[in-house]
Amino acid sequence: MLLKNLLLLLLLVHYNSQAQSSVTQREQEIASLYSNYFKANREKIHLHLNKTVYLSEETIWFKGYVIEEKNKLPFPQTANVYVDLVDEKGTKIQSELCYSSNGILEGYISLDKKTATGNYYIRAYTNFMNNFKEDESALYKIRILNPSDPATSNTNSKLNLKALTVQFFPESGVLLENTTNTIGIKITDCNEKPAIIRDGSIVNAKGVVVTRFSTNENGIGRFDLLRNQDAPYKAVFTINNTTQSFALPAAKTEGYTFSINNYTLTDKAFLKIRSVTPVTVDTQLSLIIQQDEKVTLIESLILKKGTNEESFTINNDHFYNGINTLTLIDSNNKKIADRLIFKPYSILKESIVTIAKKRNDSIIFKGSSTIPFASLSISVVPEKSVATGDTRSLYDTFIFSTYLNHYWSGNPATYLADFSRNRHYELDTYLITQKPKYDFETISNTAVPDNKYEFQTGITIKGTINKPLSDRDKYFVEMSAFFNSIKKQSEINDKNEFFFNNVILSDSTKVSFILQNRKGKIEEIPMSIQVLKGQNIFLKQLPQLPSQCPDGTSPTNKTETYSFPYVRDTKVVQLNDVNIKKAPKAPVLKNINRFSNSMARGFKISSGDFASFREVLPFIGAHGFDVIYKNGDVYINNRITRSLRGNPSPAVFVDDVPLQPDLTMLIGMSLDMVEEIYISKNGYGLGMDGGSGYIRIYTKRYMGTSEPARSKAQSYVVKKAFQPYKSFKNPDYLDYDAGFINYGTINWTPNVETDENGAFTFSIPNYNQKSVKVKIEGIGSNGELISEEKIIHL
Predict the structure, then answer these.
(1) pLDDT of 274
(2) What Gene3D superfamilies is this protein classified in (predicted)?
(3) C-alpha atoms less than 13 angstroms from C-alpha of 209 in its C-beta half-sphere
(4) Which residues pair with 678 in a beta bridge?
């Protein structure tokens, strides 16, 4: 008996292992499809815009956050991010190359005052995104208003009842005949203004009302269509005393559909699978639960012979936090239907912001959050601003929209506020109206991406020496850029070409090239330079943009008219009095027209200067710079740091030859050796090399020659490189009345860091507002997100 039981036990173990093995094998095959498809890192970009409605006289300010989709962490590998301004026709108006460091970037788009009023779009992407079939770029709708354009409308129009769009979305994408269907509905006008319907009806072919529906503030709702036998159906509703009707799509006469409810209970979901007619044999279907490369396969979902509907219960542990794509497949792994659901988890992070100090010219705030060492961006506008509509949050981008097929998806993150079972139901209704971005059929039939398009880090500078070289192997080209602390060397190939790859430079930086042999001798040989990878072509077309309202359909009734703020013309200076005095004759400066000297303050060194300072370094120290001696070296620092990365040192030249990083030759240099000195504390005219100013020293005639010593280096101003840093500056508003309250900007602070306790501070100018609207967005090193809007009373 014992032996018989043992044999039976072994048979059962063998049977179960075989069954488990077959299930595991299929699941592994499907999981392998997703694993290969998502093997490459996918960058996700979110831009925090300082607002969404701009005057043509303003600048668009933004901060970017980049994460990797699978691990949801800041992505340090991304460096080159392209940000385009596009008009409604899809034409690129402007493009900026922004530098991302550790998943963080910032930038701006300076608008032309002649920009026409209209809707525009900001698109952010990388070169690596070209590898994927899906469009992984980030897209944001903005509006630009040109006050001088007669066609500019600054009114809030009523719902356009002459151009309504009604869309129907069968749950799981399949509308079946002769069975119950859950259908999402979305109603908007041609301006994307949602229609809120309180009592809509679904009417069958006999004119009988079979069910009713309503839509929320986003124009979205759902209804159940029972049995679906008396087609055609139409949706009928009355709005503003106007009754309208729209036909539902035709139902399919064969196939399957499914519905799922994971919002009623927290520990399980209820799945229903339906077919048009009762199945003639037991039919096995399977459900793929997927998020990125993570996959769970639920098998043995059997429609029993003679039935056309079965219910199943799925443990909530099978789902992944956030958005899940559910795909129903048959025994041949063919897709039948798909659907998006959301599994709730702890997402929202909050901060507390209070006034720390209030001054006549500024207000300082202190804040506390639960995210230590986070990078934040903060925009501040008047409380009643109408310039912040259509705002997409960081939660929306990284949690929801990354899995949705189309940009025109609203802002599902709004459903997370005060999350409850009812809010989960509303979010689920919204997801019924969306299609998954990552389609199982596409994944099944697509080879693993070959990463044809590389991750770009910086620009590539290519040069060609325009003269034959003998013994080419004995030479190399050295490139240097003082401000960026760059000094690199390149070999010369058999085509007389040299390359510098992965160069991080700001646009308009001046770099120097010298040809040098192995013995250190520098030769002056002409060369041509070009920049590669500075501009990029994104292969994905813009998604279909919302259509314009047809002519003659614009509503004539306006709900409110908004005034514009007035911005002072900075080119016009009003003078009270003009006194004309004869100026003393200035000494003639010989080098005033060399390079950017005309934009600096020039000094003709006199005997009086020599008597006062004796040497060059004390003279420099008396004209706006700190001269520091340390361990036998000397350092010169600007007292006001203006550079992109905070380098306080000005660029220093002697007879147009750059000295950095070694300034020791200036130690003890007598002023009686110097003819002229040009000093610029702001660096105008030198590009980013002059971020902390520059100093040009010209010695007296050298070694009996008639000209100063000349550098053998060839200089080149780099174009199409990274956008240079620029500090935020508000337009010069004439006043802060109603126009400013409607459209004005109070402040934009892109770089706010929290400390180890999550504390942070920031300040704004005091424009005597009673209250302000503050939007805070940011990310922590572990991927924690924060995105919130506050009204702070001042």
Answers:
(1) 96
(2) 2.60.40.1930
(3) 9
(4) 602, 696
Bridge-based pairing of strands 522-523 and 510-517 is antiparallel
Query: With the CA atoms of 185, 189, 193 and 196 taken in that order, what torsion angle do they form, in degrees rounded to the nearest 10?
Result: -50
The strands making up 200-203's β-sheet, listed across from edge to edge, are 209-213, 200-203, 234-239, 242-247
**Residue 416 · residue 394 · CB < 8 Å:** no
How is residue 268 written in tokens?
């399980």
**CB atoms < 10 A from the CB of 345, how many?**
9
| Digit-coded pLDDT (tens) for 139-193 | 999 999 998 877 676 666 788 888 899 999 999 999 999 999 999 999 998 878 8
pLDDT at 715 over 70: yes
Cα separation, 111 vs 56, whole angstroms: 6
d(CA 49, CA 47): 6
> How far, rounded to the nearest angstrom, does the alpha carbon of residue 2 sit from its chain's CA centroid?
70
Dump pLDDT digits (tens) for 372-400.
999 999 999 999 999 998 788 999 999 99
Reduced to 3 states, what is the DSSP secondary structure of residue 161? helix
Q: What is the dihedral of CA 8, 9, 10, 12, to 10 degrees?
A: 90
Instruction: Give pLDDT tens digits for 641-675.
Output: 544 445 688 999 888 888 877 787 788 788 888 99
Cα 489 from chain centroid (whole Å): 34
CA–CA dist 504, 493 (Å, integer): 23
> Is 643 exposed, middle or buried, given 0-12, 13-18 or 19+ CB atoms closer than 10 A?
buried
b/e code 258-288 from CB counts within 10 Å (16+ = b): bbbebbeeeeebebbbbbbeebeeebebbbb
Q: Which long-range contacts (CB under 8 A, 24 or more apart) does 299-302 make?
A: 299/23, 299/26, 299/27, 301/271, 301/273
How far is Cα 512 from Cα 237, in angstroms, rounded to an integer? 71
How far apart are alpha carbons 171 and 184 in whole angstroms? 7
Q: Which residues contact 286 (CB under 8 A, 6 or more apart)?
A: 297, 298, 299, 300, 301, 328, 329, 330, 331
